[in-house]
Every structure is written in structure tokens, then in C-alpha cells.
Amino acid sequence: AQSVTQLDSQVPVFEEAPVELRCNYSSSVSVYLFWYVQYPNQGLQLLLKYLSGSTLVKGINGFEAEFNKSQTSFHLRKPSVHISDTAEYFCAVSEGGSYIPTFGRGTSLIVHP
Amino acid sequence: DAGVTQSPTHLIKTRGQQVTLRCSPKSGHDTVSWYQQALGQGPQFIFQYYEEEERQRGNFPDRFSGHQFPNYSSELNVNALLLGDSALYLCASSDRRQGNTEAFFGQGTRLTVV
Lengths: 113, 114
What we know:
Chain A has no helices and 12 strands. Chain A is mainly β. The interface between A and B is medium-sized, with 23 and 25 residues.
């Protein structure tokens, strides 16, 4: 069975600084990987996904993530954050052919002015 | 395109009561999944419906049941509510016929059990 570990529960950062949110997964088969963002009192919005092909994936709002199969990681990065990026970020994995992503516990990104 | 819509947005119930939550999938989607998100946690998979049948189920008791209608909309029912059932309930839809694994989420229903 797949699982996801988000290594940081909270990441504080100043506006315009770069940020990396870490995600590791475990699975015995090929996987699809996702990052979702959740703003307060809202549902989940897909930031980006990795299904196959290039290991560097670009998403919305300037975010990108890199799939590293040998390290079973899928870290999320942004070169310069804004106040509006303050939200909860969830990494998720689904095994190839599955339609059911398994989520990590989330990382709270807090951007300070 | 209205996306995934859920109703109601908020709900307060008393312990022991029963509740029904509703979900309309994104246009063209045929698969609906339900998740429970407790405060400070990631979403936990409850079950998934496709072609009006429950296809997969997570680690949730039988008090949690569901239904999918011919128009692909879905309901989540919870019986004998416990205080621990208080959570945000999220519905997600996807297009299994097209082999699309991306799940689109609704805004959720915030259930409070008192």
C-alpha cells in the first residue's frame, strides 16, 4: 500500500524568499504524484501532477516539483513566494491505474511580510 | 462548468443522529470519491463510486454508507453520529472512462456533531 510523508508540518518564510516543501512516498509499483493547495475553509485545488515523462513538473501560481524515483521524493518549490501563498499544501500519491490518491498530513506554508 | 458542488456547506447535528451529504460531480465525470478531513489532518479516503456501485472502501465503519445515482451525483450517509465524526467532508470527481486519474474536489461540507 502506498503512503506519503510530508516532512514539515509548518514552514515559515518571508515574502519573496524561495521555499521548498518536502514530500516522500512509499509504493511498490509505479505511481502518480500530486500537490494540492487548500486555502482556509475551502476544498483542495490541484497545483501540479506527475504522471510520466519529464521529472520536472511545472504547475500553477509559479510552483514546480521534481520527481526523484531513487529517493522516492516529490518536493514542491517556488523561487519567490507571496503573502497570498499562505495556505495548507498536501502531497498525494496514487498507484498506477488507481483513481484514489492517498494524502500526506499537510504542510502549512506561512508567508510573513 | 460549475465544477464539483457539495451541499450543504455547513451542518450541525446531535450525537446519535443521521446525516446525508450530497455531491454533484464535475460535468463529464463519472466517478465520485468521498474523503473525511479532520482538523489539522490530510483527507482520509472513505469510499469511491463508479457505475452506481461502491468500488473501493477505506478504513471506515459501516455507519458510513453511500449511493451514486444514474446522473453520477452521489450521497454520503452517516448513521449514529459520534463526536469524532466532526470533520470537513470532501467529495472528489474524476473521469474513469477517459483514464483520467486527476481528482477535482468540491468545497466540502463542514459537519459538526455536538
